[in-house]
Automatic annotation (TrEMBL):
Signal peptide positions (record): 1-20
Family: Belongs to the ROX family.
Residue ranges of domain JmjC in the record: 147-282
Record keyword Magnesium present: no
MF annotations from Gene Ontology: 2-oxoglutarate-dependent dioxygenase activity; iron ion binding
E.C. numbers: 1.14.11.-
UniProt-annotated location(s): Nucleus
Name the UniProt record assigns to this protein: Bifunctional lysine-specific demethylase and histidyl-hydroxylase
Amino acid sequence: MPPKLLPILLLLILHTPSHPFPLLPPTPHPHNTLLHAHHPPPSPSILDTIDLKHSWPSSSPSFIANHWNKSPVLLKNSFRPDDELYPTVADVHALATDDDSETRLITHDASKDLYSLELGPLSPSELSPPLPHSIVINDVDRFLPHVADWMDANFDRFPNWRRDDGQVSLASKGGGIGFHVDNYDVFLIQILGTRNWTIEVEPLSEDEEFTRLDDKHDVRILKASSTKRTVTKTLKPGDMLYLPPRIPHCGTATSDDCMTLSVGFRSPSASELLSAMAEDVGERVRSGASVNSRYSESNPDYILNNPSRGLLTTEASDACKKILLEAINGVEWDHFYGKHVTTSKRFRLNHPQPAGPEQGLWGDPQSAVSSVFDNNNGMLFQAEGLTFAYNANSDLFIDGTHFPDIPPPISRVICDNRCLTKSHFDSILPLPRALLIDLVSRGFLYGCDGL
Ligand SMILES: *[C@@H]1O[C@H](CO)[C@@H](O)[C@H](O)[C@H]1NC(C)=O
């Protein structure tokens, strides 16, 4: 293991409480480049604004009623800038140079209007190139327990399975990743510095996206439209922009050390479910009877008198459709669905990793569970970046793994709490000890001392 990985892994396993990092003042940068505006003049009235007064959108009735899944909105004053749990510049630099992280560096040469992409990990000298740039890292909550805590606390009313990983971008003045469109609901949370977001107010169809893709760049960027209505807003720390799926948007840092955290919400489409199911069916080819059924002529005599060898008969067409639908119906839907929506979309190696002997007490699943539940000492955390969910039919799903026959009250405690202590199980007797030990030994839960 490369030595620079160690601090990250330790952080992951030990769940150290966060340190208070003050907001960094924007530092002057010698290479600021003027922005080029490539969009029609903004019309400020076409985007609603809600002042959250230091609450979060999931507890705002007007946001949920008028905007969630429906229309873009600027949400002002979501968190207090002194919350201190969000990612810091030092966190981003540490992750960007880590072999395990999913990092991209996007630079923008404004003179050629060209975006270029470099894949991480970055060397320390690559962290601040002279051109306006943006360091983009996915899965940050997986690596930064304090960020996982923060996202969890603040998005707590949204179902676990809907929330994707956190993506952070740290940009120099003028940096950004160009106009693009996402297939999910997203909150773009301004953490540090300021950023101008230009959005088109109408969703973009797949066809329009295809014709507007600008293939001169390394990244998937749309040409600006001269006909769409756009609006530009400046976000300060604590502000966030909510966008439903397929609203084109372009963020440009208007200060150095401009940090934005994007939290996306997955919304599976029929085509995504269909292709995931095809994969699932493919894996069951060796075992499943329904997926192995095959077409054969129900009336072979037909061949003796066949009037037209080119004809696709209704009989054959219907028979093929029937075996397909039978195979789909043969899928245990609840199990497929639960596994599918709790599986991470990120590419991950060795995650989660069970704690090892070097973690002492916490490295042994049996003694970890005994410490928390027999001795009331320490706590168990959900491993960062995993999705925990359950259903009313006693199925528990964690990161794509299915645990059958778990009574819902037990799953509920495990899935609804990022951190478990003895008191969470007070009303549940007997303690599901074997399950908890199993979850710790798989690395889905990990134990640590109190905060
Ligand atoms: C940022 O957006 C504001 C409108 O909110 C605009 O007045 C300002 O000129 C923009 N700044 C840059 C650098 O584009």
